[in-house]
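I am writing to request your help with a piece of structural work I have in hand. A protein sequence and the structure tokens that stand for its backbone fold form the material at issue. Please examine both parts with care and let me know of anything in them that strikes you as inconsistent. The record follows directly beneath this note.
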Amino acid sequence: MAQIKVRQTGSPIRRTKDQRQTLQGLGLNRIGRVSTLEDTPSVRGMIAKVRHLLEVVD
């Protein structure tokens, strides 16, 4: 299956609890951290939920 890399660019401070938990679910918890994930519809939905805090890396 395809892989997708995401990098956290925004801080979870002053964000809602569900957005912070979504970042943790993606394996991110610090600005600049990169996580490699399977490209599935559920992961795409999580990325869409916090897209203002992430950057998709090639």
